[in-house]
Amino acid sequence: MNNFQYSRAADVADAIRLLTADPGAKLIAGGTNLIDLMKENVERPSRLIDISRLPLRNVEETDDGGLRIGALVPNSDLAYHPLIEQRYPLLASAVLAGASAQLRNMASVGGNLMQRTRCGYFYDTATPCNKRSPGSGCSAIHGLNRNHAILGTSASCIATNPSDMSVALAALGALVHMAGPSGARTTALTDFHRLPGDTPHIDTNLGAGEMITAVELPPHGFSHNYSYLKVRDRLSYAFALVSVAAALELDGNTISEARVALGGVAHKPWRSLEAESALRGQPATADQFSRAADLLLQGASTSSHNGFKIELARRTIVRTLTQAASATPQSQAHKKIA
Amino acid sequence: MNAYVGTPTSRVDGRAKVTGAAKYAGEFPADGLLHGFVVEATIPCGRIARLDTSEALKVKGVLDVLTHAKRPALADKDEAWKDEVAPEGSPFRPLYDDTIKFNGQPIALVVAEDWETAKFAATLVRVEYEQNSFATDLEGERSNAAEMDKPHEPRGDAAAGLAQADVRHDAEYVIPTEHHNPMELYATTAVWGGNGKLTVYDKTQGVQNVHKFLCGVFDRKPEDIRVISPYVGGAFGSGLRPQYQVVLATLGALALKRSVRVVLTRQQMYGLGYRPMTIERVALGARSDGRLDAVTHEAIAVTSRYEDFARNDTGWAEQLYSSPNSRFSHKLVHLDVSTPCDMRAPGAASGVCALECAMDELAIALKLDPIELRLKCYSDRDQSENLPYSSKQLRECYARGADAFGWSRRNPAPRAMRDGKELVGWGMATGVWEALQMPVAVRIVLTSNGHAEVSCAASDIGTGTYTIVAQVAADALGLPIENISVRLADSTLPQAPVEGGSWMAASSAHAVLAAAEEVRKELLRLAGKMPGSPLADAGLADTVLIDGSIVRSSDSSRAVSIADAMRHGNIERIEKEKLNQFDEDKKHARNTHSAVFAEVKVDEQLGVIRVTRIVSAVAAGRILNTKTGRSQIMGGVVWGIGMALHEETVMDHRFGRIMNANIAEYHIPVNADIHDIDVIFVDEPDAHINALGVKGLGEIGIVGVPAAIANAVYHATGKRIRRFPITLDKLLD
Question: How many angstroms separate the CA atoms of B673 and A235, rounded?
Fold first, then answer.
């Protein structure tokens, strides 16, 4: 771990000012990922700007019937917030599928969006990694890549985004509110994270000096037909091999609206508008779900050790959509997959 | 009198542990304590070309950076570096010279006023290497395997036996490298006591082993160093040998003449020992009725370039299955890695896993129930020694385990049982381990107030040694267990070997009995001298200690209280120390056994595996404490689940580096992976092994569990996975 300066931001404007003044600075809230990365010398911030005391901890209803979630709301508070549980249970479920109770108590909503990949080479400073050290090469492409991406990869990077929460937020059409030196702006969550391309060291479209202030959920919460299913190497406390957030609006057995987002397969939560539109107007059947899975996985490419992920993703998509259609969402508390 | 032995006595150290009163090696305070942080090599093989510590030394709070070029003297002979359980070879010497033997090797120790400063300064140490070509891949190098060990001499003609067999099974099983990951990090606090004397608080399974090692490495007199390790937060074999942090902390203390603490990080612990990856080939030939004609078992295991670590992976069929022909071999491949070490049931956990998967495959080929096959070739003798067992209730394990599990309701066809979306599989396997016992000395100090202190250098690595020593002492001295205080794991206490091999329960218990007999002898002498003593003519063998009195066994009305005897003798305390040695028994083989039954449920589409039930029926002689004993077996079972489904140290052989050196990515089971575990202790009286009939439970709990699960996965899915761990991708079509 390097030596760093520590500042406590008085308010959002102060945080932005501190961030702009020191390009090597990083914001810290829960620190559940940043501190780990600092201990491994992967992140070496010149300064930590503590934003944990800023008043960004509210969950408020918006005028259009949605919710605005402050960037510092702890993951556990989010998962157990009555409005989230009632109106956006998909999000609550996805949050509870991640990490452990202790980590969720510390981790913030904004920090969750800023999580960095769990690629072993990214963590090991003795190996080349384009994400950690641009231009050094990608060790994973011809290395140990069982957990790596199959969609949206590049010749520079095949890392995945580890967040569960983001997958549900992508499915729900969430917005990300940011504040920065040139004022506030908002982007769709699906545009917040980037694909690796030839700049895998840049995870998100957050600009210099910008910080996340809130995440906004649109009114439609898909609270009846949803499921978040995370398939991993043990039943809890592991990152996803594949995860699926599925949300349906049903008219009888006919799908009137569909959202499907994938985790564990790409550098960002993965959605396919084509797949979702193909589901609309169709009966909620395994055949249709399978067709949607094919569309979602179009263009998937595998590496030496993650070939299984395509078939696993296909089956997980079908299972999750089936759970959603039958209004029997995956429980994150049961020690089994429904 | 057995008021305590054999009962579910709660841990006597439980309160200290849960309240934090129990101190571990990295927690002992010392005046002016300094903190060391280890800098590790990032290449697997070569030498240090340049090591620049100047930037690190400039950091405020840094006192020194020790390297091979700048350090106090270290012994230059291998003999000094060989600890009591060192394998053949030339032991690793930290900071000795510029040679790099493995990735993660310590190459510098930054010593600072606080840990954070040391850790920061460690990032400023600049290293340049001359890297040599290297190899770390066992499978890639298997053609270089050299036979190191024949666990047993061949019997008969295995090749001919296999050739003439009606049914043969011949397959290879691969067990990956696994790391122990004890909860407590490796740590040493070396306390500078003035006059060059050191008190070393170390995480170890053997304080006297570490003591002798340190005296050799640093050329010190025995009285100059004292090693203490009162509590150990798990070790599982990783602490049998002195680990490098004890050398570094001691080195730091000697260099700076201050107290120094070195605590390894979780990641650095992947540079210590591990269960070696093995490729296990098992060939079985049988007649159509299930009797074996031949067994061959060959293991190829990884070791380092500098030491030959080999354990008995392959000989276990000699204990378990009657066969006229057998052949075993253990080969090693030397690679640019650190030396492996013992890890719970070393050899057996891996070797019996392969053997028991192979037996399952043979049973299927023979269309026999797996238990029936094992009963057909049940061996009442250890065939390699041609000896009967001191006791062997394995048949009863099969029967009791099968009954508790409901084995008779098993449909033998694969994929025949299901529960909703899940395929259900039932599998079983046999477990076996040795019942070892070692010389141990115990000192008992009995005071006239009826309190006894029982002390011994043995470690309690979380297994419950404090508790069983207290139980045995309380019974032998006729005192309530609250009146017994136990002191362990101080190198100045009476002798004990490292705690390992499942030998400490039997060894320490009988040492307590031996010392207690000396105490009783002294009490009888005192009581006999009292005027009108009711014990005047009593022989020692006709006396017991009960309820604070020495009592004549044949006439319990004739008794003298301990307090009276000591008062009349005009003494306050009786102190007796006794080294217990077990009579060598060349007439019996000594083993523990188990029958493990596993139920798995496998999601048919997704391949997700759940181990929903385990029944482990164990025959291990008399169980000293059914509560801690049950916990021991449960811990072994959980580990066995991890071995079957989760554990794998993954190395990138292009870099020779472990890529999952942390417990986020190195998976062990979590609560969600664990369901019902039923432990059955089968009654196994043993008149031969020792007075109490105790065998030890440390290893047997894990043996057989991975195979039982693999066999259950086959039964559920029809897929035979021979490469562990069994992850879901291996089950997807």
Answer: 6
